[in-house]
Write a structure and sequence with these properties.
Blueprint: H1 6-30, H2 33-89, H3 94-175, H4 180-193, E1 198-202, E2 205-207, H5 215-223, E3 230-231, E4 238-241
Parallel strand pairs: 1-4
Antiparallel strand pairs: 1-2, 3-4
Length: 246
């Protein structure tokens, strides 16, 4: 049966209060709303990056298709211009001039078809370029928002970390005033329960956490010597009796 002066047991409640504050600060650090926002925007930025890669590739394909269409139109125009110059010169046999006229008619039809293809390619290229520009603007906007949120996060984390450092120093100093054996018992209870080492008991009621005692346990609490360190049978934390004592 572990024993400790009641005054030292009561110190455990103060230590528990500090540890609870530290746990809350750590939870706050992990659960900052800005972190969820950053995670969401980071995912959006990644999606935009993937979309932009595809859009840029499509824009490149569209630009190459347009260049080819423009080159095809230019080639037909140049050939038609040469044929027209030869026809206008009047040189050559009559059948050659007739052939030039027929070829010019064919080239005119071919040029019209290619110009339609060129126009369609221009529209596709313009649409592709506009999509790249829109995605780029969105990605830059998200990046700017992430930078701003990063600053907000860093400020919040810095504030919380400063509080944690100060509170931890307070904790270390205060823990040093508690007898080692009792402190060891407290730390063991905290490990077993996930953070709760000591709970105040006033009469038949616990403070800060709801615990229902059996009649046998309640009798043990009421009749135990003042210096006895009582550990909850069901929960594992130390039960520190507070209030008037006999």
């Amino acid at each position: 049966m572990a024993t400790a002066h009641l005054v030292d047991q009561l110190r455990l409640l103060d230590l528990q209060e500090i540890d609870t504050a530290l746990a809350k600060a750590a939870h706050e650090r992990r659960s900052l709303p800005v972190l969820a926002h950053i995670e969401s925007l980071t995912g959006r930025e990644s999606d935009l990056h993937d979309e932009l890669v595809l859009a840029t590739s499509a824009a490149g394909d569209a630009r190459r298709a347009l260049n080819k269409a423009e080159a095809d139109v230019a080639q037909v125009r140049e050939r038609a211009a040469r044929d027209q110059a030869r026809l206008d010169s009047g040189e050559g046999l009559s059948r050659e001039l007739v052939a030039l006229q027929e070829e010019l008619a064919h080239l005119a039809g071919r040029q019209q078809t290619l110009e339609e293809i060129e126009l369609e390619a221009m529209e596709v290229a313009e649409e592709a370029d506009n999509k790249v520009a829109a995605l780029t603007a969105q990605k830059e906007s998200v990046a700017a928002d992430l930078a701003s949120l990063g600053t907000e996060r860093d400020a919040a984390v810095s504030r919380i970390d400063a509080d944690i450092v100060a509170k931890q120093a307070e904790r270390d100093a205060f823990a040093a005033t508690i007898p080692p054996k009792l402190l060891e018992e407290y730390e063991y209870a905290r490990r077993q329960t996930g953070g709760l080492g000591a709970v105040a008991v006033r009469g038949a009621r616990t403070e800060g956490v709801q615990v229902d005692f059996t009649l046998a346990e309640q009798s043990r609490i009421e009749t135990a010597p003042e210096d006895e360190v009582i550990v909850s049978e069901d929960h594992g934390f130390i039960l520190v009796r507070v209030g008037d004592r006999r």
